[in-house]
C-alpha cells in the first residue's frame, strides 16, 4: 500500500445571472477527484486530497509522509507561492524546489492533465518556467497547450507490457482532450492520443515521474472513461504503483 497526496482537482464556479435590469451572482464548489480517489483506494492505497483552494496555504514542504504526489489541474503559482510570500512579501520555502528534491531522493510524481496542468489555458499553469519542468518526463510547450477533441479520440497503447499500465487490455474509451507535450530523450511513451504522449514515464535522480496528459474526470475524461471502464483503476493504479516502487 502506498500513501498518495493528490493536490488540486477541485474548483469554485461563479455565475452571473442577468434578468432584465437586475442581476445576481451564484457560486458552487465542485470536487473532481472522486473517480481517481475511488480507483486508488480500490487498489489498497491511502489517499489524501488537498483541494485546490487549500494548496497555497497547506501544500507541504516536507513530503516524507508520502510515496507519490499527484498534481492535477492545479497551477504552479498555487503550489509555489505560499500566502506569506505572495501576500506579505516574506521569503519562504520554494515548494516546487522541495518537490523536485523529494523526487530526486526517491519520491514519485504524477502530473495529470487539465486546464491548469502543464502549460495550460493561456499559459496560466506555467510549469515550464519552474524548477519542476526538469523533473517531468516531457517537455512543455511555451504556449497554451490544450488540444480539444469534441468528437472524442481513442488512445493508442505503445507499450502494453509496461507495469505502469496495470495490464489493461482492449481498446480504451474515448477522451475529449489533453495537454500537448513532447517526450524527452529517455522517456518511455506508453500510450498516445492524437499521436502525442498520453501516458509517459521516466526517472529523475533516484525517483520516478509520470504524466497522464488528459484528465482524470470530466470534461476531458467523460463518464464512460472514468466511471464505467474497469481499466481506469488499472491504469491509474498501475502508474501509482510503478511510481512508488
TrEMBL record:
SUPFAM superfamilies in the record: Class I glutamine amidotransferase-like
Instruction: Determine the domain of life of the protein's source.
Output: Bacteria
Question: Gene3D superfamilies from the xrefs?
Answer: 3.40.50.880
Keyword Transmembrane carried by entry: no
- Record CDD domains: A4_beta-galactosidase_middle_domain
Where in the numbering of this chain does the Putative glutamine amidotransferase domain appear?
3-244
Keywords in alphabetical order: Glutamine amidotransferase
Q: Does the keyword Cell wall biogenesis/degradation apply?
A: no
Q: What is this protein called?
A: Glutamine amidotransferase
